[in-house]
Amino acid sequence: MCDIRYFKAAYHCYDVAVHLMKYYKNDEMYLNDVAYNLQQCVEKTLKAFLECKGVTVPQTHNVRKLVSMSRNSGSAGKAP
After folding, report:
1. Which own/partner pairs from 28-37 qualify as long-range (CB within 8 Å, at least 24 positions apart)?
2. What is d(CA 63, CA 77) in angstroms, rounded to the nearest whole number?
3. Distance of CA 16 to the CA centre of its chain
């Protein structure tokens, strides 16, 4: 079953990044936070996709591994 919590968490990370970028785009400390939140957004979106495909989601922050698992689970993307 597809649990939307990962999708909600991913959207929250994206929303935080957008707001930080809007108000602090010239501050390197905040840009690091923007990058972190965008990475978390991608990671959580991939985990949500995998969960919806019935794949056991690993406890990892390795986006390459999650992308590879997503490809093996039916995503349409091709390797660059």
Report:
1. 37/13
2. 14
3. 13
Residues 6+ positions from 54 with CB-CB distance below 8 Å: none
Q: How far apart are CA 35 and CA 21, in angstroms?
A: 10
Report the pLDDT value the prediction gives residue 78, as an integer from 0 to 100.
56
The percent of residues above 70 in pLDDT, for the chain, comes to 91
57 with 50: CB under 8 angstroms? Answer: yes
Report residue 78 as tokens: 């091709």
pLDDT tens per residue across span 1-27: 677 898 999 999 999 999 999 888 788
Neighbours of 44 (CB within 10 A): 22
